[in-house]
Design the sequence.
């Protein structure tokens, strides 16, 4: 079995992770986390989200975060911008790359962003035009690729349709997300094979939640399909407020440990990520969700 020789990790902890943590965080704590992650060698960090604080309180202060982080030339600092108002705020904050998100489930789309899948895609059209005018790259997300809390199993063809729409719209990369973590390796591999009929594998990424403990296995299966980009969250932070019981994304530390064991290059310092994860977990008053970090911490003490 052959795997990509290099893998890029997209660190979503400061956005997708923190936005679902109950303990409020100061701008200074968010900045310190992002700086620590950047120092570890992570080349892509989702640093915030320009959404209404009324709906996502933890993302309040994203403009201040972008103003205060120590930017590395080798790291991309991206932000989620679900609408034109968010896009304009991101541009004012000096954001150079944004993300938009859709879903493969009509029910989830309605619950999450109060509109149909087709309506959500239409909302992105002015963002894509403005992004091109501002020389800003756009990454696309598709939620509920392997299961929905309201509809159950999702047909791979539905995922393929939404992914193709985002790709045709101009998204340079499409991240396929197992939002509620019900996917298994065989289904994950088959899904990427299906979507790759319309979107090149080099433009696809995997985003796996670990609710059923399958995230690492799904990443392994996706590697065998030639996928070389994966989203992960330091300390396994986060979850999904619209999917009851859904745990956070797979922990960055755990993915790194596996990739290191496979001899796959990432350019990321595992111990620095572990330290960043343990520190933010202590601030949040919770145990790290990374098995690797827990084992490392025990052996170190």
Sequence:
């Amino acid at each position: 079995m052959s795997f990509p020789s290099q893998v890029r990790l997209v660190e979503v902890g400061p956005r997708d992770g923190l936005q679902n943590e109950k303990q409020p965080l100061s701008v200074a704590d968010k900045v310190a986390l992002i700086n620590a992650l950047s120092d570890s060698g992570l080349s892509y960090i989702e640093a915030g989200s320009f959404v209404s604080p009324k709906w996502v309180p933890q993302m309040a202060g994203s403009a201040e975060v972008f103003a205060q982080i120590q930017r590395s030339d080798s790291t991309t600092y991206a932000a989620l911008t679900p609408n034109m108002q968010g896009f304009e705020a991101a541009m004012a904050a000096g954001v150079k790359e944004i993300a938009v998100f859709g879903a493969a489930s009509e029910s989830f789309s309605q619950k999450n962003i109060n509109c149909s899948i087709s309506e959500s895609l239409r909302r992105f059209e002015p963002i894509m035009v403005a992004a091109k005018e501002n020389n800003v790259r756009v990454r696309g997300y598709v939620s509920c690729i392997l299961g929905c809390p309201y509809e159950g199993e999702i047909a791979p063809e539905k995922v393929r349709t939404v992914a193709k729409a985002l790709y045709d719209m101009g998204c340079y990369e499409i991240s396929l997300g197992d939002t509620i973590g019900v996917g298994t390796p065989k289904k994950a591999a088959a899904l990427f094979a299906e979507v790759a009929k319309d979107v090149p594998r080099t433009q696809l990424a995997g985003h796996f939640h670990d609710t059923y403990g399958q995230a690492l296995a799904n990443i392994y299966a996706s590697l065998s399909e030639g996928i070389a980009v994966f989203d992960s969250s330091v300390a396994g932070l986060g979850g999904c407020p619209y999917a009851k019981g859904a745990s956070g994304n797979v922990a960055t530390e755990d993915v790194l440990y596996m990739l290191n064991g496979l001899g796959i290059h990432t350019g990321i310092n595992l111990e620095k990520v572990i330290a960043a994860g343990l520190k933010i977990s202590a601030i949040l008053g919770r145990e790290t969700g990374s098995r690797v970090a827990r084992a490392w911490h025990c052996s170190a003490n």
